[in-house]
Prior knowledge:
Layout: E1 3-7, E2 10-13, E3 18-25, E4 33-39, E5 46-51, E6 58-60, E7 68-73, E8 78-83, E9 92-99, E10 113-114, E11 118-123
Parallel strand pairs: 2-11
Antiparallel strand pairs: 1-3, 3-8, 4-5, 4-9, 5-6, 7-8, 9-10, 9-11
Amino acid sequence: xxxxxxxxxxxxxxxxxxxxxxxxxxxxxxxxxxxxxxxxxxxxxxxxxxxxxxxxxxxxxxxxxxxxxxxxxxxxxxxxxxxxxxxxxxxxxxxxxxxxxxxxxxxxxxxxxxxxxxxxxxxx
Length: 124
């Protein structure tokens, strides 16, 4: 079992920045590929970004490419999502997820464990 706890969400103005963190516990963190998803009210949960074990491979949804950056620190059991140039349409609950494989995942079913989410609200 892996437990994931997100933090760092909040209110930001359009054009601003936030940094989300997700701390993992329970199993060896470095064995898991990690991902971030988000879900806006009335919408499906959508993929945002993914990173492999070492952090050497990353992938982003087109909607966030060039604005968001995923990274990880295996010594701290933490994965990060840096959100820059925020837009109102980035408003959502952001979830981190862990996958028991060193393969990037792009859909919900690729992941085995989920956090509870952290709210990001961007005002115009």
